[in-house]
Design goal:
about 0% helix, about 45% strand, 4-stranded antiparallel beta sheet, 10 strands, mainly beta, 6-stranded mixed beta sheet
Length: about 120
């Protein structure tokens, strides 16, 4: 049984940076893509970025966020720069069941998700 644990969220001013971490157990990063998704109050869940053999980004993240992974530590990172008010959300990492290579497909299995970490961008 796999487990994903996010950390690194917090309160930051507009223009600031945060680095989120997702420690993965039970899923090999060489066999599973890992994605970052976010959900703001009253809004639908949104795919932010995902990584397997390549990295994909949502338009809202491209140029500001960078996803990376350390296979030796089974950890995936999301470096977020130039944060905006609209980036406020709970950020989740997830092990992806599918990798079409063109978008981040959220998994259907509930145990493929982490518990989330809150990111609040506010002045």
């Amino acid at each position: 049984q796999g487990k994903l644990v996010e950390s690194g969220g917090g309160l930051v001013q507009p223009g600031g940076s945060l680095r989120l971490s997702c420690v993965v157990s039970g899923f090999s990063l060489q066999s599973f893509a890992i994605g970052w998704f976010r959900q703001a109050p009253g809004k639908a869940r949104e795919g932010v970025s995902c990584i397997f053999r390549s990295a994909l980004y949502a338009d809202s993240a491209r140029g500001r966020f960078t996803i990376s992974k350390d296979n030796t530590k089974n950890t995936v990172f999301l470096q977020m720069n130039s944060l905006e008010l609209e980036d406020t959300a709970v950020y989740y990492c997830a092990a992806l069941e599918l990798w079409p290579g063109s978008r981040c497909v959220p998994p259907n299995k509930s145990d493929y998700w982490g518990q989330g970490t809150q990111v609040t961008v506010s002045s």
